[in-house]
Structure prediction request, 293 residues.
Amino acid sequence: MSKRIASITASVSLSLLAALAAFTLATLTFTPKAAAQCLPGSWLCAQVQVGVTGGIYIGPSMPPPPPPPQVVYVQPQPQPPVVIYQPQPQTQVVYVQQRPQVQFVGIQPLSIAPAEEPAPRWGVHAEVGAMTTADVAMGGGAVAFRLRPSPWFALDLGVGSYGGQDYNGNDRVEVPFTANALFFINPQSEWQFYLLGGLGASYAHTDNFGTYAGPGHTDMSMFGNDYSYFGGQLGVGLEWRMSRNFALNTDFRAFVRTRTDGGSTPEFTDPVTGATTDTSGGAYWTGGATLYW
Prediction:
């Protein structure tokens, strides 16, 4: 029974294969275009038209498509910075020799600037002075020859005459001889301050009227005395240099001196204590002018 079923099955299979083969051959169309499109190693290539035109290939299976290319990204190495050194432009010196030009000039006399004159070194000084207190009222004047070898220093040699009432109430006439050094603090200025110091000798004459009362009469007599002194003085002053050759000045001087005539009677007696002395002192103002050359 089984053999019969197998035989029937085989017969049916062969019939189906034969029908399929006949159908396939009936519908396949071999064209040059189908042959050209055959893959290498194909057993059968044909163009089939079953409603839609297409191709059929019978043979080994097609190789798989190649894998997509692998993209490798390479990180470029950082390039060092490009430094461009530009040299300093060099200055090119071009010497252009000009053609000499002929210039006609007239002949003029040579003028020489005069040399600066040295500062005046010589001068004549004249002054007036006064000393006034409760007991003394005297005034007078003096002249002096001035030597000024430097703008900073001057030397005055002078003589004067003063008169008036002295400390004892006597009429006095006095003639001083002085030698004073002057030290100028700012000689470049128009207003020049100076310090003064020096030595001097002086001769004086005094007159005093006295009354003598005798038996039956009264006599009025005048008594006179002569004195000589030696001493020194210090002072400070200001000179206004109005021009190169002329100046005005004023100063304040203090002096001290002692008697040198050898008189036996002291000149000064203190009415309160009775003390006596031949040394005296004082101070006075002066104002004057100097002519320089």
Observations:
- The chain has a mean pLDDT of 80.
- The domain at 122-292 is CATH 2.40.160.20 (Porin).
- The chain has two domains: 7-57, 122-292.
- The first strand starts at residue 28 and ends at 29.
